[in-house]
Amino acid sequence: MHYLIIGNSVAAVNAVEAIRGADKEGSITIVSDEEALNYSRPLLSYYLGGRVAEDRLAFRDEAFYEKHMVNLILGNRATGLDTKKRQVNLADGTRLPYDRLLLSVGGVPIVPPIDGLRHDTRGVFTFIQLQEVTRLIEYIEQYSIQEAVVLGAGLIGLKAIEGLLERGLRVTVIELMDRILANTFDREASAIIEERLSTHGCTVITGDTIERVKTRGGKIKQLTLKSGTEIPTSLLIVAVGVRPHLELVKGTTIKADRGILVDEFMRTNVPDVYAAGDCAQGLDFLSKENAVIAIWPVAARQGKVAGLNMSGSRTPYPGLFAMNSVQIMDIPTISFGMTTPSEGEGYEVLQSVDRAKSSYKKIVLRNDRVVGAILLNAVERAGVYGMLIREEVDVKEFKDQLLGDKFGLLVLPKEFRKHLVAGESFVA
Fold first, then answer.
1. What is the pLDDT of residue 419?
2. Whole-number CA gyration radius for the chain
3. Which residues pair with 369 in a beta bridge?
4. Using the 8-state DSSP alphabet, how is residue 237 labeled?
5. Helix, strand, or coil here: 263?
6. Is there a contact between 363 and 355 (Cβ–Cβ < 8 Å)?
7. What are phi and psi of 195, to 5 degrees?
8. Which of 193, 224, 191, 317 is closest to 266 using CA atoms?
9. Of 18, 97, 356, 358, which residue is most buried, by most CB within 10 angstroms?
10. What whole-number distance in Å separates Cα of residue 366 and Cα of residue 386?
11. Which of helix, strand or coil describes residue 301?
């Protein structure tokens, strides 16, 4: 059996481990367009800030690939896919055959059209790949950059801001929405993070965006916002979002929507072609529909399930839900599921806030079951909340204790704890 995996991040690594658990002899080839062995994307902000060295970013070492007998091809891009001939073409002209193919090609940064911004404008960067962040660091050091502008105040933008602030730069963030982290947090949580950013010298501009870029000698020099505000800057980081990388499936019969569509076994509609990670549109546990959930735990689980099924198992993907665990400006934050539900759709919201401690808890319920949570500086029981969502536990009997400081496993019904110890699923 010839297994071919395009992409070398967490989905690919988990697929390799799953395949080798069942098939010790089949050949496995991984192709990546990046030169790095592998790296943890959540650590890129710490790399930018100087807290983590580049050689500490890898989550698997070379011995991993040797142990699992993986033929690793780095720095070579997959340029074409022929599902009839069962082969992938690489940029250097190599043609790789496959019996089973996994597409774990991740996502690409969205760069909106801005008047005056060219693809070769110097001083403009994105923030999702190691090689881009390395170039960013070199640019800052080469030109002694003292200030920067970040377009986009989502999670990627906020982590870029954190790294820049740690390097001692003055930062301005521009967000089109009316608050930062609008897709992850509600107004209260966003306000707490915004206050912390301000105390660290970050200027926050919301409800606005960049309309025009001025350059000098091919280098960025000034931004003009839609509001008319002009901001001089020598460095711009574009962090408005990421979309699934679909170039390889264009022109093929593989079906795609927002991402590559997969079934419960991570299979595409084409036999022996699978997809996992940020490029895949798989089952969302809460909505019960297919969705792109571009986060590390989802990519890891999807990669494992894909590997199991590629090697002959019949293991369904249970579906996960949106979840983010990230520290922003020394504030640990976690969010699960549906955090900002629409009014009038049967949701109940429980909240507790302590602005003095930058602490906030929000639990979202529907039909007495937890479907979402936001936790800032109060993440100790996050695992329990996540379990309540996964197990769809009826919390009516202990709803009034969900926000309490003493809330934990011992508050849960005895029947549920028995099933938990036994390792079984349980729906109250």
1. 57
2. 23
3. 366, 394
4. E
5. coil
6. no
7. -60, -45
8. 317
9. 18
10. 15
11. helix
Buried b / exposed e along 180-214 (16+ C-beta atoms within 10 A): bbbebbbeebbbbbbebbeeeebebbbeebbeebe
Residues 377/359, Cβ–Cβ less than 8 Å: yes
* CB environment 413-426: b (16+ within 10 A), e (fewer): eeebeeeeeeeeeb
Per the listing, tokens 């799953």 go with: 18
pLDDT at position 417, please?
Answer: 62
The two structure tokens encoding residue 207: 């409800």
**Which regions of the chain are under pLDDT 70?**
413, 415-428
Residue with tokens 């395949």: 19
Q: Hey, what are 181's tokens?
A: 């982290």
- Interatomic CA distance for residues 3 and 104, integer angstroms: 13
Beta bridge mates, 337: 372
CA distances from 305 to 91, 129, 193, 282, 283 (A): 29, 25, 36, 12, 12
Amino acid occupying residue 256 = A
295, two tokens: 């986060």
- How far is it, in rounded angstroms, from Cα 143 to Cα 40? 28
